[in-house]
Design a protein that fits this description.
The structure is a single chain. Helices cover 42% and strands 15% of the residues. It contains 23 helices and 18 strands. Strands 6-12-14-13-15-16-17-18 form an 8-stranded mixed sheet, sandwiched between helices. A 6-stranded mixed sheet has the order 1-2-8-7-5-3, covered by helices on one side. A hairpin with a 2-residue loop joins strand 9 and strand 10. Helix 5 runs antiparallel to helix 6 and helix 14 crosses helix 15.
Length: 636
């Protein structure tokens, strides 16, 4: 009994001591690798909740993260007024809490016009505190280079810039012109003075306002193997400059610059000191062309400019309707393409050399989906080249397309470089696949009198008729290597034709093809200028279409070996074989034999196990990139 009382007394004393000390204690638990990463990296952008760093900073001040979500303004006020945190923790936490507030505003409701100022203010505040942390806190960014928190805060800055600039675009797009802040003008929204600086950017067609402004981060694409971007500071955007991508009625010129140019936007705040940055309500958005600018100055420090080089290209292809239009062009429907059109995949740059890409039969610029994207994704090639893709009516005969593509290229070059002195106009590269490969070869070849002599073997011309025919049809019958092109890449090209053009299925398809009216009129006039009205043997005059032009029996294809490639042009071949175990001389890609694709004198010949669409094979694209890099080195 006495023992029991003693034990009870000791227990009571122990409980009293625990009560006095507050029952403090530490417990330990294991954390999985996945939870470890989530705890260290998770934040408002990845989980929708405040990061561990922000929650810990709030806890130091006796603030609760959930209460901050419910009352962000009170939370930010408490953070601003406290001296319990060092400058970096205070600024980074303020940036994240303001961003959480903005995200909550958008999640809770569709932001009405009356709420736009509050939403914009939240994003601008987030960007401002991120900017202050990154460039005006005691330690420079270089000393935090390997810290997770700096990466998080940079992302807060980039996202806040993206959201604020797209919302400002919506405001100014809908506002009267007198109220709009464009091209260096200023506007006021709520407590903020907004400035736009666009001196470095030239939008296609001389326009100043896009129809849409789309964050590149919101776009994803199927059909593209890679998404290429440059990590850095700023918002990555796509400007939509055309309501309709392929409205032929708007093709006033034979060319059009990309209707979806890439833009990068940074945001800076007026002030030289931290105190000035935190008090200012002057915000300046600087818009840049990421193809021409690689670094920007923020807070007096040079930092990489964020950029996305795939989204604009992918959006163009997705909205183009090329897949269905290519078939209409191949059979020559009334709404098909009548003449070549050149698409510039970025705004013209006089300092980048030009790559001209020519697709094949029944195809379109979509033939180059991954080829072009991989070139744009290669930093060395992106800095050295710009891509021009030629879209042409593949139902038309080769001589016609050769002449019209040359005209389109000349007019385009004359528009952008009338004096012909820009680097872009020198050492160009032409790349062609299949039928496009034949046209590429014609671009770097000399016809001499080969075609005229061949025509006169079929027809007799008087001297007067010959002079008139020369004046009207000379561009189809006589040509020299296109000035400025010094390298060519022929891919799965039937230089000697393809027997597939004589296949029963191909002949059936050929009978369905309707030639463009311009082609019919031109060839009809050529026929009328000849004496008589029939070919030898009494056969009527026949105009070959695109399929006919690829036949080994086609007279033009048979004359092609007599048209030499310029000695000033370095050319390369990429050949496909769908039976790599077969002897090379007997191989084929399913449409073009090796014997037809091979050309003597090529600087290189890559034989790749693949089908006829080898231009999309990773091995072929690597070879193209190798050649293009080699060309840059030789062209310096």
């Amino acid at each position: 009994m006495k023992h029991s009382l003693g034990l009870a007394t000791r227990c009571a004393a122990l409980l009293l001591i625990l009560a006095i000390t507050g029952c403090a204690g530490v417990k330990v638990a294991s954390v999985s690798t996945q939870d470890y990463i989530a705890q260290r990296r998770g934040d408002v952008l990845t989980t929708g909740k405040l990061s561990a760093a922000a929650s810990e900073a709030l806890a130091v001040l006796g603030l609760d993260a959930d209460k901050c979500r419910a009352s962000a303004l009170n939370c930010t006020s408490a953070l601003r007024g406290s001296d319990g945190l060092d400058t970096e923790r205070q600024l980074s936490t303020l940036s994240e809490v303001w961003l959480l507030h903005a995200v909550e505003l958008e999640r809770q409701r569709s932001v009405a016009a009356t709420d736009r100022d509050e939403l914009l203010d939240a994003y601008l505040q987030s960007a401002r505190y991120a900017y202050a942390y990154l460039f005006h806190s005691p330690r420079p960014p270089a000393e935090r280079a390997f810290e997770d928190r700096q990466t998080q805060v940079r992302d807060y800055y980039n996202y806040a810039v993206q959201q604020s600039v797209t919302r400002l675009y919506e405001h100014y797009r809908d506002a009267p012109k007198a109220d709009a802040a464009r091209g260096g003008e200023s506007g006021r929204i709520g407590d903020w003075n907004i400035h736009f600086l666009m001196d470095e950017v030239r939008l296609p067609g001389g326009k100043t306002t896009p129809y849409e402004l789309i964050p590149a981060s919101t776009l994803t694409f199927s059909g593209l193997r890679s998404m290429y971007r440059r990590d850095g500071f700023g918002a990555e955007l796509v400007a939509v400059m055309a309501r309709s991508v392929n409205d032929k009625d708007t093709f006033e010129q034979p060319y059009s610059e990309t209707p979806f140019p890439a833009l990068s936007v940074i945001l800076s705040f007026k002030g030289r000191t931290l105190a000035q940055i935190l008090e200012t309500h002057d915000a300046a958005f600087t818009v840049s062309d990421p193809y021409r600018r690689y670094y920007v100055s923020l807070g007096g420090i040079s930092v990489p400019l964020a950029a996305n080089f795939t989204s604009g290209y992918g959006l163009w292809l997705a909205r183009s309707g090329f897949a269905t239009q290519a078939l209409r062009n191949a059979i020559g429907t009334s709404d098909g393409l009548a003449e070549p059109h050149i698409y510039l995949l970025q705004p013209y740059d006089p300092d980048r050399r030009i790559i001209v890409m020519l697709h094949g039969l029944a195809s379109s610029p979509e033939a180059w989906i991954n080829t072009a994207n991989e070139v744009l994704g290669d930093e060395v090639l992106r800095r050295g080249y710009q891509i021009w893709q030629v879209y042409y009516p593949t139902n038309a005969p080769l001589p016609y397309n050769n002449a019209e593509i040359r005209k389109a290229l000349r007019r385009t070059l004359e528009h952008f470089d009338p004096m012909g002195t820009a680097r872009a106009s020198r050492d160009m590269v032409v790349i062609g696949h299949s039928m496009g490969g034949i046209l590429s070869r014609l671009m770097v070849s000399s016809s001499g009198n080969v075609l005229w002599k061949a025509l006169q073997e079929y027809r007799t011309f008087t001297p007067e008729e010959m002079a008139e025919a020369e004046a009207e049809f000379g561009d189809m019958m006589r040509f020299e290597p296109f000035h400025g092109i010094t390298r060519a890449i022929f891919i799965a090209t039937p230089h000697r034709g393809t027997e597939f053009a004589e296949h029963r299925l191909a002949r059936w398809a050929s009978n369905l093809i309707t030639l463009p009216a311009t082609v019919l009129r031109k060839f009809a006039r050529m026929s009328q200028r000849a004496e008589g009205g029939e070919m030898p043997g009494g056969e009527p005059y026949y105009i070959p279409n695109g399929v006919d032009s690829l036949s080994p029996k086609d007279p033009f294809i048979q004359l092609l070996p007599q048209m030499p490639i310029s000695s000033n042009v370095t050319f390369h071949s990429i050949v496909a074989t769908d039976k790599p175990d077969a002897p090379l001389e007997q191989s084929t890609d399913g449409f073009v034999t090796y014997q037809s694709a091979h050309l003597d004198g090529a600087a290189s010949e890559a034989v790749i196990p693949y089908t006829h669409s080898v231009q999309e094979a990773p091995e072929a694209i690597l070879e193209i990139r190798r050649v293009l890099r080699e060309h840059l080195g030789a062209a310096k």
